[in-house]
Protein backbone atom coordinates (compact mmCIF):
# COMPACT_ATOMS: atom_id res chain seq x y z
CA UNK A 1 0.00 0.00 0.00
CA UNK A 2 3.00 2.30 0.10
CA UNK A 3 2.62 3.68 -3.40
CA UNK A 4 -1.04 4.41 -2.79
CA UNK A 5 -0.11 6.51 0.22
CA UNK A 6 0.90 9.49 -1.90
CA UNK A 7 1.34 12.66 0.14
CA UNK A 8 -1.01 14.63 -2.11
CA UNK A 9 -3.92 12.39 -1.07
CA UNK A 10 -3.73 14.18 2.28
CA UNK A 11 -4.20 17.67 0.80
CA UNK A 12 -8.02 17.64 0.28
CA UNK A 13 -8.91 16.25 3.74
CA UNK A 14 -6.32 18.38 5.54
CA UNK A 15 -7.47 21.51 3.75
CA UNK A 16 -11.10 20.74 4.48
CA UNK A 17 -10.41 19.95 8.15
CA UNK A 18 -8.48 23.18 8.56
CA UNK A 19 -11.21 25.31 6.99
CA UNK A 20 -14.25 23.53 8.43
CA UNK A 21 -12.99 22.29 11.80
CA UNK A 22 -9.60 23.45 13.08
CA UNK A 23 -9.99 27.15 12.32
CA UNK A 24 -13.58 27.31 13.70
CA UNK A 25 -12.56 25.35 16.82
CA UNK A 26 -9.51 27.52 17.50
CA UNK A 27 -11.54 30.68 16.86
CA UNK A 28 -14.24 29.43 19.20
CA UNK A 29 -11.65 28.73 21.90
CA UNK A 30 -10.13 32.19 21.45
CA UNK A 31 -13.58 33.74 21.54
CA UNK A 32 -14.32 31.85 24.73
CA UNK A 33 -11.00 32.91 26.26
CA UNK A 34 -11.62 36.55 25.39
CA UNK A 35 -15.16 36.44 26.79
CA UNK A 36 -14.33 34.24 29.78
CA UNK A 37 -15.42 35.58 33.11
CA UNK A 38 -15.43 33.98 36.52
CA UNK A 39 -18.96 35.29 37.00
CA UNK A 40 -20.26 32.93 34.32
CA UNK A 41 -18.33 29.91 35.56
CA UNK A 42 -19.30 30.61 39.17
CA UNK A 43 -22.94 31.13 38.29
CA UNK A 44 -25.06 28.36 39.91
CA UNK A 45 -27.02 27.88 36.71
CA UNK A 46 -23.83 27.30 34.68
CA UNK A 47 -22.44 24.95 37.30
CA UNK A 48 -25.72 23.03 37.26
CA UNK A 49 -25.58 22.64 33.47
CA UNK A 50 -21.98 21.42 33.55
CA UNK A 51 -22.59 19.14 36.52
CA UNK A 52 -25.77 17.70 35.06
CA UNK A 53 -24.17 17.14 31.65
CA UNK A 54 -21.36 15.14 33.26
CA UNK A 55 -23.70 13.37 35.72
CA UNK A 56 -26.15 12.12 33.08
CA UNK A 57 -23.24 10.97 30.91
CA UNK A 58 -21.67 9.06 33.82
CA UNK A 59 -25.04 7.59 34.79
CA UNK A 60 -25.53 6.39 31.22
CA UNK A 61 -22.07 4.79 31.26
CA UNK A 62 -22.95 2.94 34.46
CA UNK A 63 -26.30 1.69 33.16
CA UNK A 64 -24.98 0.54 29.78
CA UNK A 65 -22.08 -1.21 31.53
CA UNK A 66 -24.39 -3.07 33.91
CA UNK A 67 -26.58 -4.10 30.99
CA UNK A 68 -23.85 -4.61 28.42
CA UNK A 69 -21.57 -6.98 30.35
CA UNK A 70 -24.06 -9.85 30.85
CA UNK A 71 -25.78 -9.34 27.49
CA UNK A 72 -22.57 -9.26 25.47
CA UNK A 73 -21.13 -12.23 27.44
CA UNK A 74 -24.21 -14.31 26.64
CA UNK A 75 -24.10 -13.44 22.92
CA UNK A 76 -20.33 -14.01 22.72
CA UNK A 77 -20.47 -17.40 24.44
CA UNK A 78 -23.63 -19.07 23.07
CA UNK A 79 -24.80 -20.29 19.69
CA UNK A 80 -28.51 -19.92 19.00
CA UNK A 81 -30.84 -19.43 16.06
CA UNK A 82 -30.74 -15.86 14.76
CA UNK A 83 -27.46 -14.97 16.51
CA UNK A 84 -25.92 -13.45 13.37
CA UNK A 85 -29.07 -11.42 12.72
CA UNK A 86 -29.14 -10.23 16.34
CA UNK A 87 -25.55 -9.03 16.09
CA UNK A 88 -26.56 -6.93 13.10
CA UNK A 89 -29.79 -5.65 14.63
CA UNK A 90 -27.88 -4.41 17.67
CA UNK A 91 -26.63 -1.47 15.62
CA UNK A 92 -30.07 -0.47 14.35
CA UNK A 93 -30.63 2.25 17.01
CA UNK A 94 -27.27 3.80 16.15
CA UNK A 95 -28.39 4.76 12.64
CA UNK A 96 -31.69 6.25 13.82
CA UNK A 97 -32.06 10.03 13.64
CA UNK A 98 -32.24 11.51 17.12
CA UNK A 99 -35.70 12.96 16.59
CA UNK A 100 -37.06 9.58 15.46
CA UNK A 101 -35.74 7.98 18.63
CA UNK A 102 -37.10 10.85 20.69
CA UNK A 103 -40.57 10.57 19.17
CA UNK A 104 -40.55 6.82 19.80
CA UNK A 105 -39.58 7.29 23.45
CA UNK A 106 -42.24 9.97 23.96
CA UNK A 107 -44.77 7.62 22.35
CA UNK A 108 -43.91 5.07 25.01
CA UNK A 109 -43.52 7.18 28.15
CA UNK A 110 -44.77 10.70 27.37
CA UNK A 111 -48.14 12.31 27.90
CA UNK A 112 -50.76 10.22 26.15
CA UNK A 113 -48.15 7.54 25.52
CA UNK A 114 -48.72 3.83 25.30
CA UNK A 115 -47.60 3.14 28.87
CA UNK A 116 -49.21 6.26 30.37
CA UNK A 117 -46.15 7.16 32.45
CA UNK A 118 -46.41 10.95 31.88
CA UNK A 119 -42.62 11.39 31.98
CA UNK A 120 -42.33 14.39 29.64
CA UNK A 121 -39.08 16.35 30.09
CA UNK A 122 -37.66 14.23 32.90
CA UNK A 123 -34.22 12.99 33.85
CA UNK A 124 -35.39 9.36 33.59
CA UNK A 125 -36.60 9.89 30.04
CA UNK A 126 -33.29 11.44 29.00
CA UNK A 127 -31.39 8.58 30.63
CA UNK A 128 -33.50 6.02 28.76
CA UNK A 129 -32.86 7.85 25.49
CA UNK A 130 -29.12 7.81 26.12
CA UNK A 131 -29.22 4.08 26.87
CA UNK A 132 -31.22 3.42 23.70
CA UNK A 133 -28.56 5.08 21.58
CA UNK A 134 -25.39 3.94 23.33
CA UNK A 135 -26.09 0.40 24.53
CA UNK A 136 -25.34 -0.97 21.01
CA UNK A 137 -21.80 0.44 21.19
CA UNK A 138 -21.11 -1.35 24.47
CA UNK A 139 -22.73 -4.56 23.24
CA UNK A 140 -20.64 -4.67 20.07
CA UNK A 141 -17.46 -3.89 22.02
CA UNK A 142 -18.30 -6.47 24.69
CA UNK A 143 -18.99 -9.22 22.16
CA UNK A 144 -15.69 -8.46 20.43
CA UNK A 145 -13.81 -8.37 23.73
CA UNK A 146 -15.22 -11.64 25.09
CA UNK A 147 -14.76 -13.33 21.71
CA UNK A 148 -11.03 -12.58 21.84
CA UNK A 149 -10.43 -14.43 25.12
CA UNK A 150 -8.00 -17.27 24.24
CA UNK A 151 -9.35 -20.76 24.67
CA UNK A 152 -6.04 -21.91 26.15
CA UNK A 153 -6.32 -19.49 29.08
CA UNK A 154 -9.82 -20.62 30.01
CA UNK A 155 -8.93 -24.30 29.61
CA UNK A 156 -5.87 -23.92 31.84
CA UNK A 157 -7.94 -22.19 34.53
CA UNK A 158 -10.55 -24.94 34.48
CA UNK A 159 -7.89 -27.66 34.69
CA UNK A 160 -6.59 -25.92 37.82
CA UNK A 161 -10.07 -26.16 39.35
CA UNK A 162 -11.46 -22.64 38.75
CA UNK A 163 -15.25 -22.39 38.56
CA UNK A 164 -17.26 -20.31 36.07
CA UNK A 165 -17.38 -17.25 38.30
CA UNK A 166 -13.67 -17.41 39.03
CA UNK A 167 -12.86 -17.90 35.33
CA UNK A 168 -14.97 -14.87 34.44
CA UNK A 169 -13.38 -12.47 36.94
CA UNK A 170 -9.81 -13.77 36.62
CA UNK A 171 -9.59 -14.57 32.88
CA UNK A 172 -12.48 -13.25 30.80
CA UNK A 173 -13.16 -9.87 32.42
CA UNK A 174 -9.51 -8.65 32.38
CA UNK A 175 -9.33 -9.50 28.66
CA UNK A 176 -12.61 -7.78 27.77
CA UNK A 177 -12.31 -4.80 30.14
CA UNK A 178 -10.27 -2.57 27.74
CA UNK A 179 -12.95 -3.04 25.08
CA UNK A 180 -15.63 -1.89 27.49
CA UNK A 181 -13.56 1.08 28.64
CA UNK A 182 -12.99 2.15 25.05
CA UNK A 183 -16.71 1.96 24.30
CA UNK A 184 -17.57 3.82 27.53
CA UNK A 185 -15.32 6.70 26.47
CA UNK A 186 -17.42 7.09 23.33
CA UNK A 187 -20.64 6.74 25.35
CA UNK A 188 -19.56 9.54 27.69
CA UNK A 189 -18.56 11.68 24.73
CA UNK A 190 -21.86 11.17 22.92
CA UNK A 191 -23.96 11.78 26.04
CA UNK A 192 -22.02 14.81 27.28
CA UNK A 193 -22.16 16.39 23.82
CA UNK A 194 -25.68 15.18 23.07
CA UNK A 195 -28.14 17.68 21.63
CA UNK A 196 -31.19 16.26 19.88
CA UNK A 197 -32.17 13.73 22.55
CA UNK A 198 -31.43 16.20 25.37
CA UNK A 199 -33.44 18.97 23.67
CA UNK A 200 -36.46 16.76 23.06
CA UNK A 201 -36.53 14.63 26.21
CA UNK A 202 -34.80 16.71 28.87
CA UNK A 203 -36.50 20.04 28.32
CA UNK A 204 -35.08 23.24 29.80
CA UNK A 205 -34.76 21.91 33.35
CA UNK A 206 -32.56 18.97 32.33
CA UNK A 207 -30.85 20.70 29.42
CA UNK A 208 -27.23 19.77 28.77
CA UNK A 209 -24.42 22.19 27.96
CA UNK A 210 -25.04 21.77 24.22
CA UNK A 211 -28.71 22.72 24.59
CA UNK A 212 -27.71 25.73 26.68
CA UNK A 213 -25.27 26.85 23.96
CA UNK A 214 -28.04 26.63 21.38
CA UNK A 215 -30.42 28.62 23.59
CA UNK A 216 -27.83 31.37 24.17
CA UNK A 217 -27.14 31.73 20.45
CA UNK A 218 -30.64 31.28 19.02
CA UNK A 219 -32.72 33.12 21.62
CA UNK A 220 -30.37 35.50 23.47
CA UNK A 221 -27.64 36.20 20.85
CA UNK A 222 -25.18 35.85 23.75
CA UNK A 223 -22.21 34.70 21.68
CA UNK A 224 -19.61 35.43 24.36
CA UNK A 225 -21.06 33.20 27.07
CA UNK A 226 -21.94 30.56 24.48
CA UNK A 227 -18.30 30.53 23.35
CA UNK A 228 -17.15 30.01 26.94
CA UNK A 229 -19.45 27.02 27.37
CA UNK A 230 -18.41 25.64 23.99
CA UNK A 231 -14.74 25.88 25.00
CA UNK A 232 -15.42 24.04 28.27
CA UNK A 233 -17.40 21.38 26.41
CA UNK A 234 -14.63 20.83 23.88
CA UNK A 235 -12.10 20.60 26.72
CA UNK A 236 -14.06 17.75 28.30
CA UNK A 237 -14.38 16.06 24.91
CA UNK A 238 -10.64 16.38 24.17
CA UNK A 239 -9.66 14.68 27.44
CA UNK A 240 -12.07 11.79 26.87
CA UNK A 241 -11.00 11.45 23.23
CA UNK A 242 -7.34 11.26 24.30
CA UNK A 243 -8.17 8.48 26.74
CA UNK A 244 -10.09 6.66 24.02
CA UNK A 245 -7.14 6.93 21.64
CA UNK A 246 -4.80 5.40 24.23
CA UNK A 247 -7.19 2.48 24.70
CA UNK A 248 -7.57 2.00 20.95
CA UNK A 249 -3.82 1.50 20.59
CA UNK A 250 -3.95 -1.25 23.21
CA UNK A 251 -6.82 -2.99 21.43
CA UNK A 252 -4.87 -3.24 18.16
CA UNK A 253 -3.00 -6.34 19.42
CA UNK A 254 -3.78 -9.57 17.53
CA UNK A 255 -5.65 -12.45 19.14
CA UNK A 256 -3.27 -14.82 20.95
CA UNK A 257 -4.54 -18.34 20.30
CA UNK A 258 -7.94 -19.69 19.36
CA UNK A 259 -11.21 -18.19 20.57
CA UNK A 260 -13.60 -20.17 22.76
CA UNK A 261 -16.09 -22.41 21.00
CA UNK A 262 -19.73 -21.33 21.23
CA UNK A 263 -21.98 -23.32 23.54
CA UNK A 264 -25.53 -24.31 22.53
CA UNK A 265 -28.42 -22.96 24.58
CA UNK A 266 -29.57 -26.09 26.40
CA UNK A 267 -31.03 -26.60 29.85
CA UNK A 268 -33.50 -24.48 31.76
CA UNK A 269 -30.82 -22.15 33.15
CA UNK A 270 -29.45 -21.27 29.72
CA UNK A 271 -32.95 -20.91 28.26
CA UNK A 272 -34.01 -18.63 31.13
CA UNK A 273 -30.89 -16.52 30.62
CA UNK A 274 -31.61 -16.30 26.89
CA UNK A 275 -35.19 -15.16 27.50
CA UNK A 276 -34.03 -12.50 29.98
CA UNK A 277 -31.36 -11.21 27.58
CA UNK A 278 -33.74 -11.00 24.63
CA UNK A 279 -36.35 -9.26 26.81
CA UNK A 280 -33.83 -6.62 27.90
CA UNK A 281 -32.80 -6.05 24.30
CA UNK A 282 -36.42 -5.58 23.30
CA UNK A 283 -37.05 -3.09 26.13
CA UNK A 284 -33.95 -0.94 25.59
CA UNK A 285 -33.26 -1.25 21.86
CA UNK A 286 -36.41 -2.03 19.91
CA UNK A 287 -39.41 -0.87 21.98
CA UNK A 288 -39.21 2.84 20.89
CA UNK A 289 -39.00 1.83 17.22
CA UNK A 290 -41.99 -0.48 17.58
CA UNK A 291 -43.89 2.35 19.32
CA UNK A 292 -43.29 4.64 16.32
CA UNK A 293 -44.66 2.03 13.94
CA UNK A 294 -47.70 1.47 16.15
CA UNK A 295 -48.49 5.19 16.60
CA UNK A 296 -47.98 5.97 12.90
CA UNK A 297 -50.26 3.11 11.85
CA UNK A 298 -52.92 3.91 14.45
CA UNK A 299 -53.00 7.66 13.78
CA UNK A 300 -53.85 7.36 10.09
CA UNK A 301 -52.18 10.72 9.45
CA UNK A 302 -50.13 9.57 6.48
CA UNK A 303 -51.71 12.32 4.38
CA UNK A 304 -49.08 14.59 5.95
CA UNK A 305 -46.70 13.29 3.27
CA UNK A 306 -48.93 14.82 0.59
CA UNK A 307 -48.86 18.33 2.04
CA UNK A 308 -46.76 21.06 0.42
CA UNK A 309 -44.77 21.66 3.61
CA UNK A 310 -43.70 18.03 3.76
CA UNK A 311 -42.89 17.91 0.06
CA UNK A 312 -40.53 20.87 0.41
CA UNK A 313 -38.89 19.33 3.49
CA UNK A 314 -38.47 15.98 1.74
CA UNK A 315 -36.91 17.56 -1.35
CA UNK A 316 -34.53 19.61 0.81
CA UNK A 317 -33.54 16.51 2.77
CA UNK A 318 -32.85 14.50 -0.38
CA UNK A 319 -31.01 17.40 -2.01
CA UNK A 320 -28.77 18.07 0.97
CA UNK A 321 -28.07 14.36 1.42
CA UNK A 322 -27.12 13.86 -2.23
CA UNK A 323 -24.78 16.87 -2.21
CA UNK A 324 -23.30 15.71 1.09
CA UNK A 325 -22.53 12.26 -0.29
CA UNK A 326 -20.60 13.79 -3.18
CA UNK A 327 -18.34 15.66 -0.79
CA UNK A 328 -18.16 12.72 1.62
CA UNK A 329 -17.00 10.35 -1.12
CA UNK A 330 -14.23 12.68 -2.31
CA UNK A 331 -12.90 13.73 1.10
CA UNK A 332 -13.42 10.31 2.68
CA UNK A 333 -11.56 8.34 -0.01
CA UNK A 334 -8.64 10.78 -0.03
CA UNK A 335 -8.40 10.61 3.76
CA UNK A 336 -8.54 6.80 3.65
CA UNK A 337 -5.75 6.58 1.08
CA UNK A 338 -3.64 8.94 3.19
CA UNK A 339 -4.37 7.06 6.43
CA UNK A 340 -1.25 4.93 6.10
CA UNK A 341 0.32 7.73 8.15
CA UNK A 342 -0.70 7.53 11.87
CA UNK A 343 -1.31 11.28 12.09
CA UNK A 344 -3.80 11.19 9.23
CA UNK A 345 -5.57 8.19 10.77
CA UNK A 346 -5.90 10.09 14.04
CA UNK A 347 -7.20 13.19 12.24
CA UNK A 348 -10.27 11.22 11.14
CA UNK A 349 -11.42 11.35 14.77
CA UNK A 350 -11.42 15.16 14.92
CA UNK A 351 -15.00 15.67 13.61
CA UNK A 352 -16.22 12.94 15.98
CA UNK A 353 -14.70 14.65 19.01
CA UNK A 354 -16.29 18.04 18.33
CA UNK A 355 -20.04 18.10 18.91
CA UNK A 356 -22.43 19.16 16.10
CA UNK A 357 -23.45 22.22 18.12
CA UNK A 358 -19.83 23.37 18.47
CA UNK A 359 -19.21 22.64 14.76
CA UNK A 360 -22.18 24.76 13.70
CA UNK A 361 -21.44 27.52 16.21
CA UNK A 362 -17.77 27.64 15.17
CA UNK A 363 -18.65 27.91 11.49
CA UNK A 364 -21.10 30.69 12.33
CA UNK A 365 -18.49 32.63 14.30
CA UNK A 366 -15.64 32.28 11.77
CA UNK A 367 -17.66 32.82 8.59
CA UNK A 368 -20.44 35.30 9.47
CA UNK A 369 -20.64 36.49 5.89
CA UNK A 370 -21.52 32.95 4.81
CA UNK A 371 -24.25 32.46 7.40
CA UNK A 372 -27.44 30.95 5.96
CA UNK A 373 -25.51 29.89 2.87
CA UNK A 374 -25.75 26.46 1.29
CA UNK A 375 -21.96 26.06 1.22
CA UNK A 376 -21.67 26.53 4.98
CA UNK A 377 -24.57 24.17 5.68
CA UNK A 378 -23.13 21.44 3.46
CA UNK A 379 -19.68 21.92 5.00
CA UNK A 380 -21.16 21.09 8.40
CA UNK A 381 -22.92 18.04 6.98
CA UNK A 382 -19.79 16.74 5.22
CA UNK A 383 -17.60 17.33 8.26
CA UNK A 384 -19.82 15.21 10.49
CA UNK A 385 -20.43 12.46 7.92
CA UNK A 386 -17.16 11.85 6.06
CA UNK A 387 -15.26 10.11 8.95
CA UNK A 388 -17.55 7.11 8.48
CA UNK A 389 -16.26 6.67 4.93
CA UNK A 390 -12.64 7.44 5.82
CA UNK A 391 -12.47 4.98 8.72
CA UNK A 392 -14.41 2.22 6.97
CA UNK A 393 -12.32 2.35 3.80
CA UNK A 394 -9.06 2.72 5.75
CA UNK A 395 -9.79 -0.45 7.71
CA UNK A 396 -10.58 -2.26 4.47
CA UNK A 397 -7.33 -1.06 2.89
CA UNK A 398 -5.38 -2.44 5.86
CA UNK A 399 -6.68 -5.93 5.05
CA UNK A 400 -5.58 -5.90 1.39
CA UNK A 401 -2.44 -7.97 0.68
CA UNK A 402 0.45 -5.95 -0.69
CA UNK A 403 1.06 -8.71 -3.23
CA UNK A 404 -2.14 -7.83 -5.07
CA UNK A 405 -1.03 -4.25 -5.55
CA UNK A 406 2.47 -5.36 -6.47
CA UNK A 407 1.00 -7.62 -9.15
CA UNK A 408 -0.95 -4.65 -10.54
CA UNK A 409 2.24 -2.55 -10.70
CA UNK A 410 4.09 -5.43 -12.37
CA UNK A 411 1.46 -5.39 -15.11
CA UNK A 412 2.27 -1.74 -15.77
CA UNK A 413 -0.65 0.01 -14.05
CA UNK A 414 -0.05 3.42 -12.51
CA UNK A 415 -1.40 4.77 -9.26
CA UNK A 416 -4.76 5.94 -10.58
CA UNK A 417 -5.23 2.84 -12.73
CA UNK A 418 -4.53 0.63 -9.71
CA UNK A 419 -6.98 2.61 -7.62
CA UNK A 420 -9.75 2.42 -10.20
CA UNK A 421 -9.41 -1.18 -11.40
CA UNK A 422 -7.97 -2.95 -8.33
CA UNK A 423 -8.46 -1.08 -5.06
CA UNK A 424 -11.91 0.44 -5.46
CA UNK A 425 -13.63 -2.85 -6.42
CA UNK A 426 -12.03 -4.52 -3.39
CA UNK A 427 -13.04 -1.80 -0.91
CA UNK A 428 -16.50 -1.29 -2.46
CA UNK A 429 -18.35 -3.04 0.42
CA UNK A 430 -16.56 -0.84 2.97
CA UNK A 431 -17.29 2.25 0.88
CA UNK A 432 -20.96 1.24 0.68
CA UNK A 433 -21.19 0.86 4.45
CA UNK A 434 -19.48 4.17 5.02
CA UNK A 435 -21.76 5.98 2.59
CA UNK A 436 -24.82 4.40 4.21
CA UNK A 437 -23.70 5.72 7.61
CA UNK A 438 -22.98 9.12 6.03
CA UNK A 439 -26.43 9.22 4.40
CA UNK A 440 -28.12 8.31 7.69
CA UNK A 441 -26.12 11.07 9.40
CA UNK A 442 -27.09 13.68 6.79
CA UNK A 443 -30.78 12.76 6.80
CA UNK A 444 -31.00 12.79 10.59
CA UNK A 445 -28.74 15.79 11.26
CA UNK A 446 -30.52 18.27 13.49
CA UNK A 447 -28.13 20.61 15.30
CA UNK A 448 -26.28 21.90 12.23
CA UNK A 449 -29.59 22.45 10.44
CA UNK A 450 -31.02 24.50 13.32
CA UNK A 451 -27.94 26.73 13.41
CA UNK A 452 -27.12 27.21 9.74
CA UNK A 453 -30.32 26.65 7.75
CA UNK A 454 -32.80 29.14 6.33
CA UNK A 455 -36.54 28.83 6.99
CA UNK A 456 -37.12 27.78 3.38
CA UNK A 457 -34.48 25.04 3.80
CA UNK A 458 -36.60 23.14 6.27
CA UNK A 459 -35.75 19.43 6.39
CA UNK A 460 -37.72 16.47 7.70
CA UNK A 461 -36.01 16.64 11.08
CA UNK A 462 -36.77 20.33 11.58
CA UNK A 463 -40.34 19.77 10.37
CA UNK A 464 -40.81 17.02 12.98
CA UNK A 465 -39.44 19.36 15.66
CA UNK A 466 -41.82 22.12 14.58
CA UNK A 467 -44.80 19.74 14.65
CA UNK A 468 -43.90 18.57 18.14
CA UNK A 469 -43.78 22.20 19.27
CA UNK A 470 -47.33 22.89 18.06
CA UNK A 471 -50.39 22.18 20.18
CA UNK A 472 -52.93 19.55 19.26
CA UNK A 473 -53.08 15.79 18.81
CA UNK A 474 -53.06 16.18 15.02
CA UNK A 475 -49.55 17.64 15.15
CA UNK A 476 -48.36 14.78 17.35
CA UNK A 477 -49.84 12.28 14.90
CA UNK A 478 -48.20 14.11 12.00
CA UNK A 479 -44.82 14.01 13.78
CA UNK A 480 -45.27 10.27 14.35
CA UNK A 481 -45.98 9.64 10.67
CA UNK A 482 -43.02 11.76 9.59
CA UNK A 483 -40.85 9.86 12.05
CA UNK A 484 -42.16 6.62 10.56
CA UNK A 485 -40.95 7.75 7.14
CA UNK A 486 -37.49 8.55 8.51
CA UNK A 487 -37.52 5.19 10.26
CA UNK A 488 -38.02 3.48 6.90
CA UNK A 489 -35.05 5.39 5.45
CA UNK A 490 -32.91 4.45 8.45
CA UNK A 491 -33.87 0.81 7.94
CA UNK A 492 -32.72 1.01 4.32
CA UNK A 493 -29.41 2.52 5.44
CA UNK A 494 -29.12 -0.20 8.07
CA UNK A 495 -29.60 -2.92 5.43
CA UNK A 496 -26.80 -1.41 3.34
CA UNK A 497 -24.51 -1.17 6.37
CA UNK A 498 -25.10 -4.65 7.74
CA UNK A 499 -25.68 -6.56 4.49
CA UNK A 500 -23.34 -9.55 4.61
CA UNK A 501 -20.38 -9.54 2.25
CA UNK A 502 -20.71 -12.95 0.60
CA UNK A 503 -17.46 -12.50 -1.31
CA UNK A 504 -15.59 -12.08 1.97
CA UNK A 505 -17.38 -15.05 3.50
CA UNK A 506 -16.53 -17.21 0.48
CA UNK A 507 -12.85 -16.21 0.68
CA UNK A 508 -12.88 -17.12 4.37
From TrEMBL:
What is one Gene Ontology biological process annotated in the Swiss-Prot or TrEMBL record?
transmembrane transport
The UniProt keyword set, sorted, is: Cell inner membrane, Cell membrane, Membrane, Transmembrane, Transmembrane helix, Transport
Keyword Cell inner membrane belongs to the record: yes
The protein here is known as ABC transporter permease
What the entry lists under InterPro entries is as follows: MetI-like, MetI-like_sf
UniProt GO cellular component terms: plasma membrane
Q: Which Pfam families match?
A: BPD_transp_1
Output the SUPFAM superfamilies linked to this UniProt entry: MetI-like (SSF161098)
Q: How does it sit in the membrane?
A: Multi-pass membrane protein
- Parts of the chain that traverse the membrane: 7-30, 50-73, 85-110, 179-206, 226-247, 268-294, 314-334, 346-366, 372-389, 410-428, 434-453, 474-497
Q: Where in the cell is it found?
A: Cell inner membrane; Cell membrane
Primary location recorded for the protein, binned into one broad class: membrane
Give every ABC transmembrane type-1 domain span: 50-244, 314-497
Similarity comment: family membership: Belongs to the binding-protein-dependent transport system permease family.
Q: This protein's superkingdom? A: Bacteria
Amino acid sequence: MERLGKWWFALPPLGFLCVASLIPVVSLLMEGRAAASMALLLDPSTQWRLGWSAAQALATCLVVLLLGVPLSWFVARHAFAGRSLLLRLMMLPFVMPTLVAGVGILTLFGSGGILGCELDESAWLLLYGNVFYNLPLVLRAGVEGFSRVPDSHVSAARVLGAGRVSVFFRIEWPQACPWFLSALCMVFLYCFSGFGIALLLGGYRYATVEVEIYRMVAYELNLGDAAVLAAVSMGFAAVVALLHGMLERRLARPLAGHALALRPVTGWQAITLAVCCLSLLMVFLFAPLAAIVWRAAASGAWHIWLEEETRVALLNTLRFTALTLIGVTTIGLCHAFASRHPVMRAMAWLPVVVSPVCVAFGLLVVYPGWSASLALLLSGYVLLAYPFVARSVANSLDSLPDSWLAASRTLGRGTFSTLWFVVLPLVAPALRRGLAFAAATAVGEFAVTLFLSRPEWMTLTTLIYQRLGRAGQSNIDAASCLSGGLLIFALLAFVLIEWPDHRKENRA
